[in-house]
Backbone:
């Protein structure tokens, strides 16, 4: 009897051990596999990102050293007859004696202060912030074991991305790393005459350093095999994910040049890493390089013209004419940037705004001033932006955006243009300018013509940042009120409308 009981116990123990081992094996398996069906199970737009709405990043690196023309200087300086080619020769000499790689020792970042940047971004009202990790020029702003052209081993000899990541996370902001390196690979080595028709950043030209067979120079200029390039592409992404845990990875265009198998591998690695770290991440695409089911669509210098079901992103720059710093850099006005932010948020999107630091690491004061003005506006009016969601209509007014997409013409809004957001039973009407003191305003979106006899009953209105009582009337033609007898804000102001959820007009 004792022997039978003993045998039974042994058997049960073996079964239990086998079950536990199976469970352990199942638990150790990656949650997401490198196929679109498995990856689609991930939430492509986490709630923190939908709530954040506004972020800042910076185009900065070796590209900032020439400070001439624009962020495509490194490409255009190799095009005979271009202004950049002439400038380079006149300033630095022939390319054979001074190539783009010779700018690297000049990138010293001697005044870079990660904590100062993070403090500025926080004061600007950004909820996520970061840096171009690698641009088209093959320069890595982190301590890389894969790419010798990196900020720790050359130039400033410091881990710029690491320092900034730590400083941003210390401020409880989410961290952004952007990657633009898909253009770096030269693909017309055998037909160099076709280079200008390609999206490669550097040319294969026997007369220029870009064609060098030296392993170090060949790496910077993308004069390597596709196999090596693709392996380095995924390797560097994993390196940044492992060491800096970015919450948002932004991809510039042309990522379709990377084989689909590598893109799937990246997404699976990123999602599984986030799962292990118990965090939610997001990455972008521009031209369909990744399915919308796994990534967020980005409209560079553009946006949609309507409310979309899928959340999206636009990246804009504080500057005019260049993403990176130049000595003649123009700047947008604060109200223009704020109007873009408001318009984007009203249509179910977010804005990531670029700044352009100088090569020494200083963000010019005129750029700082714009960011701080945005931050001051958000201090008063952020209630209508952060954690908001689109209303039934995005807005009204005379200014029209005819199409959706990237690289749209700049739009100038008027005080007659109004955008809407909501939170629960509260609707925010954001007026894009000051219409004047004691001006009569009608919110026409609260009319039968727009809402088709389903007009919410407004029980109270107020202006954010204005303490006095607001009076209004409401009928089937809209909601009517008069602005105060003193200016609230030239840039934009917010009408807060509290709704009686149980009543209709």
Residues:
């Amino acid at each position: 009897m004792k022997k039978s009981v003993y045998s039974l116990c042994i058997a049960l123990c073996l079964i239990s051990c086998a079950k536990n081992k199976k469970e352990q094996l199942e638990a150790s398996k990656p949650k997401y596999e490198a196929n679109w069906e498995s990856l689609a199970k991930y939430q492509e737009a986490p709630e923190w990102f939908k709530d954040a709405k506004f972020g800042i990043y910076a185009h900065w690196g070796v590209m900032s050293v020439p400070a001439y023309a624009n962020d495509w200087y490194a490409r255009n300086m190799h095009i005979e007859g271009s202004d950049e080619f002439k400038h380079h020769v006149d300033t630095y000499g022939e390319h054979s004696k001074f190539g783009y790689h010779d700018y690297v020792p000049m990138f010293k970042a001697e005044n870079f202060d990660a904590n100062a940047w993070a403090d500025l971004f926080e004061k600007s009202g950004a909820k996520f912030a970061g840096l171009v990790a690698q641009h088209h020029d093959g320069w890595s702003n982190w301590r890389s074991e894969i790419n010798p052209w990196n900020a720790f081993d050359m130039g400033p000899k410091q881990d710029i991305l690491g320092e900034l990541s730590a400083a941003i996370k210390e401020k409880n902001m989410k961290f952004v790393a952007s990657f633009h390196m898909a253009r770096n690979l030269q693909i017309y080595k055998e037909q160099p005459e076709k280079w200008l028709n390609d999206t490669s950043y550097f040319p294969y030209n026997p007369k220029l350093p870009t064609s060098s067979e030296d392993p170090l120079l060949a790496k910077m200029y993308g004069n390597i095999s596709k196999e090596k390039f693709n392996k380095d592409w995924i390797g560097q992404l994993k390196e940044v994910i492992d060491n800096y845990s970015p919450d948002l990875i932004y991809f510039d265009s042309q990522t379709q040049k990377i084989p689909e198998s590598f893109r799937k591998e990246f997404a699976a690695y990123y999602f599984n890493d986030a799962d292990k770290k118990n965090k939610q991440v997001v990455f972008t695409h521009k031209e369909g390089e990744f399915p919308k089911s796994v990534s967020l669509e980005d409209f560079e210098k553009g946006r949609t013209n309507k409310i979309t079901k899928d959340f999206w992103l636009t990246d804009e720059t504080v500057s005019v004419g260049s993403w990176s710093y130049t000595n003649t850099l123009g700047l947008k006005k604060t109200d223009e940037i704020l109007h873009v932010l408001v318009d984007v948020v009203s249509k179910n999107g977010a804005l990531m705004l670029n700044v352009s630091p100088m090569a020494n690491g200083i963000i010019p004061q005129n750029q700082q001033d714009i960011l701080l003005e945005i931050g001051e506006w958000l201090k008063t009016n952020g209630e209508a932006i952060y954690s908001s969601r689109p209303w039934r209509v995005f807005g009204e007014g005379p200014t029209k955006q005819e199409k959706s997409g990237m690289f749209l013409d700049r739009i100038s809004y008027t005080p007659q243009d109004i955008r809407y957001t909501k939170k629960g039973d509260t609707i925010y009407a954001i007026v894009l300018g000051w219409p004047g003191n004691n001006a009569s305003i009608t919110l026409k979106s609260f009319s039968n013509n727009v809402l088709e006899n389903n007009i919410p009953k407004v029980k109270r209105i107020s202006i954010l940042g204005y303490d006095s009582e607001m009076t209004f009337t409401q009928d089937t033609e809209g909601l009517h009120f008069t602005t105060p007898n003193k200016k609230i804000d030239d840039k934009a102001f917010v009408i807060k409308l509290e709704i009686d959820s149980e009543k209709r007009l």
